[in-house]
Write a structure and sequence with these properties.
With about 425 residues, the protein is of the alpha+beta class. The protein has nine helices and 18 strands. A hairpin with a 4-residue loop joins strand 5 and strand 6. Helix 1 crosses helix 2, helix 7 crosses helix 8 and helix 8 runs antiparallel to helix 9.
């Protein structure tokens, strides 16, 4: 298995319709890995409390914001998600001249969740992530096995007014503000000479390593990328195809556009094989702060065979039980040293039912077509309901406390009917 990774997209006015920001990501992970969608409410903490991330414990903050996350079920962090302030983040694996080997530290997925829990704007999320990166570092296996698959991370972060691209190499980093149009990232460095924030020692470090002469224009991607492109050739192709798909709908990008991009298999964005798209997310964020954002998640593999289901942040949101995997607590093989000596069953209810349906779709053409059409109709109905919310707002928040779980139940009912 040649590990690959993900594609993340953001489109801002004037490339979108209706003064909205559209965010999307496919999480490409091992095909046998379960991705869950979970919700954590805002919470206050006492001074001196700690938070246990995937591998290490760090200082907790006084208050965390409410978050909805799509994450590999075995770890603490997340591949993608959003918070109650409509900050959205997706991360990518990147490799370059800096070695990825080292001690266990924060995973990029941990940094993503911490950014969502602690920042109410995209720019603040950049600050949160980089401060934690500099203090604790990044490192540790990113797969639930003993392969030692490690990488650096890039992040695409958006809020109601702008987006930021943050790219890291070890503890060093650079960030670029995106204020309009669209941007997509894959598994390669993309920040060039437009750098709006950076590690204070970034350039001197590059010069000391002999990667930059200290006189020519500083280009982050050129300086920190591999000298050869063999490792990132596939991601480069996906990046170019993703950019073309965004350009094709420039000025008219909608949630449906983004879902179509995430479902595209010809481009490789909807990945198949031993590494495949195991979860997908599309968020619709009105620039008007009086209107709610709507966040769609599949919680199942292959968006072409999945339903994007809506989530809205309301005060009394209930737990997302049908897409939450079983917890094994301190007995989890991830927590025991040596790690990963076994793999427990992490299938949540929706995942297990979706596996059966996927097998039917793949093996029975006519029946599979009927099931897929039923799933698409359900998605269309959900999106039609959400369009009114995106335009008019939420008058009775408590009615949406079970929005996502109800949509999951409707999806599972559609499986049964079909």
């Amino acid at each position: 298995m040649q590990p690959s990774s993900c594609d993340t997209f953001v489109a801002l006015p004037p490339s979108t319709e209706g003064q909205r920001i559209i965010f999307g990501k496919n999480s490409d992970r091992p095909s046998d890995e379960v991705q869950e969608v979970v919700y954590f409410p805002a919470k206050c903490y006492d001074a001196g409390e700690k938070v246990e991330c995937t591998y290490i414990e760090i200082d907790q903050v006084a208050k965390t914001y409410a978050v909805v996350l799509s994450r590999p079920a075995w770890l603490w962090g997340a591949e993608m998600g959003a918070n109650e302030y409509q900050v959205c983040i997706g991360n990518e694996a990147v490799w370059g001249r800096e070695s990825t080997e080292g001690d266990e530290a924060l995973l990029g997925m941990d940094l993503l969740r911490l950014g969502l829990e602690r920042a109410d704007t995209a720019e603040k999320a950049v600050d949160v992530i980089t401060e934690l990166l500099e203090k604790y570092g990044q490192g540790g296996s990113c797969l639930e096995d003993e392969s030692g698959f490690t990488y650096h991370n890039s992040f695409l972060i958006s809020d109601r007014k702008e987006a930021w691209l943050l790219e890291t190499s070890g503890k060093h980093w650079a960030a670029e503000r995106v204020e309009g149009g669209y941007r997509n990232i894959s598994n390669q460095y993309g920040i060039t000479s437009k750098i709006d924030k950076e590690h204070p020692e970034l350039r001197e470090y590059a010069r000391s390593q002999g990667w930059w002469d200290g006189e020519s224009e500083f280009n982050f991607a050129t300086v920190f990328s591999y000298m050869t492109t063999a490792r990132i050739e596939a991601s480069g192709g996906r990046y170019c195809e993703g950019k073309k798909l965004l350009e094709k709908s420039h000025g008219h990008i909608t949630a449906e556009t983004m879902m179509g991009i995430l479902r595209d298999k010809d481009s490789g964005i909807n990945m198949e094989g031993m590494f495949m798209t195991t979860g997908s997310m599309v968020s619709v964020i009105p620039t008007n702060p009086a209107l709610p954002g709507v966040h769609y998640f599949t919680a199942t593999p292959d968006p072409e065979k999945s339903v994007f289901k809506p989530f809205i942040f309301v005060k009394h949101t209930n737990p997302l039980k049908e897409t939450t995997s079983r917890s094994y607590g301190p007995n989890d093989p991830v927590k025991k040293i040596p790690r990963f000596q076994s793999k427990p069953d992490r299938k949540h209810e929706l995942f297990a039912k979706h596996q059966v349906v996927t097998a039917i779709i793949d093996s029975h053409k006519d029946r599979g077509k009927t099931i897929t059409e039923s799933m698409r109709q359900l998605e269309k109905e959900n999106m039609s309901r959400m369009e009114k919310i995106l335009s008019d707002g939420v008058e009775q928040p408590d009615l949406f406390a079970n929005l996502f779980p109800n949509s999951v139940q409707a999806e599972m009912a559609a499986y049964t009917k079909s």
